[in-house]
């Protein structure tokens, strides 16, 4: 069997480890061959592929990014499923492993369930917002980078007696902000799931300042203050019409300074959270998911994806996993309240 493998959507640490795990398991355990598909669905639609051998994946576990490239090309563009079938037949590809987040896996689920195509998935998102799996690889690295940023900002904030606002990724969910904020001892954590008022933010900052601390605020890019209707987005849209978020940190900093009298600076962490080497946890999780995806192909579990349940690797329907976002639950938000301010 010849398996086509692709990475699609936003990049994240651990993609290469998935590719390595899948290729090594497939070749060694089952005698499969592999075809690398460049830049996600674009490569399958435009016949941009190449053979993928064991030698091509050696040493990939700790390498960030993806050797296959990625894009946000929609699977139903440029001829859609029929064009994909033509390319698969031409290249002798019997099945597809699609590695990606909610958008990628929603497309993969539709191809498998509605079109009858042999597609399985591996969940990837640094936001950790994909339902059906306890964690997605890439998230641990992102939260670790954000935590390190908090630690570094704290030393300069203490030196200059300033308030620092750190903006992290999180369009619809606040897992990075929550986890990094807790790990770094932030005095205010602001996430999309639970809007709070400007006055509450100012109170948390004042409380930390009154105790002799340099206040540190961590905010997810998708946070909307209570009473405000729209997310802060001052970067326009991408070529697919998707709003580019970013700027809530810059929006909050002058308001905090005006309300509290504390000099305040903001920093947007941005794509640093996506880059560089994955943590040990993400390397292991990504490798295990890649190996599991090969077993799903072996069993012809089309429309399924590898997932993490506790410490066990399981399989779930992609359609179920993309049906809802995995939001930060109320109990996690409630437990962090005692740490704020």
Radius of gyration: 21 Å
Mean pLDDT: 95
Element pattern in H and E: EHEHEHHEHEHEHEHEHEHEEHH
CATH class of the largest domain: Alpha Beta
Multimerization status: single chain
From the 3D coordinates, which CATH architecture of the largest domain would you assign? 3-Layer(aba) Sandwich
Q: Which stretches are poorly predicted, pLDDT < 50 over at least 5 residues? A: none
Q: Do you know the CATH topology of the largest domain?
A: Rossmann fold
Site (Important for substrate specificity): 103
Binding site for ATP: 10, 72-73, 101-104
Pathway: Carbohydrate degradation; glycolysis; D-glyceraldehyde 3-phosphate and glycerone phosphate from D-glucose: step 3/4
Binding site for substrate: 125-127, 162, 169-171, 221, 265, 271-274
What is the secondary structure topology, with strand pairs?
Layout: E1 2-7, H1 15-30, E2 33-37, H2 41-46, E3 49-52, H3 54-57, H4 80-91, E4 95-100, H5 102-115, E5 119-123, H6 139-160, E6 163-168, H7 175-184, E7 188-190, H8 198-210, E8 216-220, H9 248-260, E9 264-268, H10 280-298, E10 304-309, E11 312-317, H11 318-321, H12 330-336
Parallel strand pairs: 1-2, 1-4, 4-5, 6-8, 6-9, 7-8
Antiparallel strand pairs: 2-3, 10-11
Binding site for substrate: 125-127, 162, 169-171, 221, 265, 271-274
Main location: cytoplasm
Cofactor: Mg(2+)
